Amino acid sequence: MGIRHKIGFLIVLLCFPIVLSAQMTYGVTGLLHMPSGEMQKDKTVMLGGNFLNKSITPPAWYYGTYNYYLNVTIFPWLEVAYTCTLFSAEHLGLKPYGYTGFTNQDRYFSFRIRALKEGQFWKYMPGVVLGTSDPFTSSGEQVGSATGNGYFSRFYIAATKHFQIGKEEIGVHVAYLYNKRKDYPLNGPAVGVTYSPSFHKPLTLVAEYDSKDFAIGAMYLLFNHLHMQFELQKMSRFTGGLAYKIYLK
Q1: Domain carrying residue 225
Q2: E strand residue ranges, the chain
Q3: Given a cut of 70, is residue 133 above it in pLDDT?
């Protein structure tokens, strides 16, 4: 995606009155690409999709691709998502058979469990979440496989605390990620900062280190239902997506 598309996307986002709602490229709640200690409201359903730059995906995707997902916060403490990421026919070796473009997909589940709610026992208590994405191979027999089709496998613990500094709100997010993947290892800390400026509270800016790369971006919620996310992975490579939120409660 060229620089004109990136600038156009930013202009469109900034032209609307919007409200923050965090959501990740994995199809679950979080920051841009790292997990957080935040949760969606109880009985929230999200239907969404993203364009994923190749720099944000495992090496199996040496090209930009797309994903789509269904996410449900079943209880205030449990979030479940089902995410599909598209494969190209060229990658699967189907081009000689007349197939081109995106013809197949990788599928995986994600689970997030709230261990502590922010401010639960005292005002400085951070929100803490335990989570995993793509924990099983297609056979369902291996957990956290080092190889195979568990491309997005990861396990993590994440914590979030928001601070009010005068009129400004700062969110501090820390996490530790782990997996066994040989092709896409995630073994280390992740750190993120969110900022909601007092002159325009609906806007939240994000900077993060997701245990592999640095990224900057922003997240919005338009009309309380349409969520938009913009990200520059490695500070220059565009990833972005849309999600529609439904509140059953």
Answers
A1: 3-245
A2: 18-19, 44-52, 65-75, 78-88, 102-116, 127-133, 154-165, 168-178, 188-196, 204-209, 214-222, 226-233, 237-247
A3: yes
- CA-based nearest residue to 156, from 21, 24, 22, 20: 24
Cα torsion 204, 205, 209, 210 to 10°: value is: 50
pLDDT of residue 21: 47
| Residue 58 identity (one-letter amino acid) | P
Mean pLDDT of 52-63: 92
Domain of residue 114, CATH code:
2.40.160
Residues 134 and 142: beta-carbon distance below 8 Å: no
How far apart are alpha carbons 120 and 128 in whole angstroms? 10
Q: Are 84 and 67 in contact (CB under 8 A)?
A: yes
Instruction: Give the DSSP H/E element, type plus range, for residue 140.
Output: none
Kind and range of the H or E run holding 13: helix 3-14
Domain count, the chain: 1
Structure tokens at 85: 């990421």
Strands 226-233 and 168-178: unpaired
CA 99 to chain centre: 30
Distance (Å, rounded) from C-alpha 204 to C-alpha 87? 32
Q: DSSP labels for 41-105?
A: PTTEEEEEEEEE-GGGS-TT--S-EEEEEEEEEEETTEEEEEEEEEEETTTTT-GGGT--SEEEE
- Nearest CA to 200 out of 245, 168, 171, 157 is that of 168
Q: What's the pLDDT at 224?
A: 86
